[in-house]
Amino acid sequence: MEKIIYIVTSGCYSDYRIERVYSTKEKANEFIQQHGTDYRIEEYVIDEEKVKKEEKIWKVEINIDDNSVNQSIPRNFLRREEGTCEYHEYFRNDVVDLYVKADSMDKAIKIAKERYFAIKANDYIWSTLTKRENINQVCFNIHTNKFIKL
Q1: Residue 31 near residue 39, CB atoms below 8 Å
Q2: What is the Cα–Cα distance from 118 to 121, expressed in whole angstroms?
Q3: Distance in angstroms (rounded) separating the CA atoms of residues 109 and 65
Q4: pLDDT for residue 34 is more than 70
Q5: At how many degrees (to 10) do helices 105-121 and 123-130 cross?
Q6: Selection from 119, 127, 62 nearest residue 93 by Cα
Q7: What is the arithmetic mean of pLDDT over 109-138?
Q8: Is 43 helix (H, G, I), strand (E, B) or coil?
Q9: Is the dihedral of CA 102, 105, 107, 111 positive or negative?
């Protein structure tokens, strides 16, 4: 949808000047009615060219000891579908991998942390995900609220 601005001008040639800029024709007309008829309204279309950032699937790894983000990397291929959560043990570090769709790393981390805390707050989901016998064998799909066997 194109946007139009309304510019109130006066004078001509070297005396030409812009008096005011309005977002609606009604506001421009109000100005003219209050200040005299020596003004004109010119309409200009504003280009609204928004470049949509490409969304990617990001893997965000969160350390469960301190809830910090260990790493977040864009995935060029889908190891897991967007919206899944996995729990892993790496030596002494227990981590949760969340796969989220976002157009930047910052947004991916924000989405992942919100989902992480929601999962952690649900005792049934958290205990099922982190059971010893389920480690590296099950993941949780946030969109369907179901566990998936790996």
Answers
A1: yes
A2: 5
A3: 17
A4: yes
A5: 100
A6: 62
A7: 83
A8: strand
A9: positive
- Structural contact between residues 85 and 129, judged by C-beta atoms closer than 8 angstroms: yes
Q: Are 97 and 60 in contact (CB under 8 A)?
A: yes
Q: Which two tokens stand for residue 143?
A: 């969109």
What length is written for the chain? 150
CB 101 within 8 A of CB 91: no
Output the average pLDDT for the chain.
81
What tens digit of pLDDT does each residue of 38-65 get?
899 999 888 766 666 788 888 888 888 8
Both structure tokens of 65: 């000891």
Residues ≥6 apart with Cβ < 8 Å to 33: none
pTM over 0.85: no
For a pLDDT cut of 70, what percent of the chain falls above it? 81
Separate counts of helices (H) and strands (E) for the chain: 3, 9
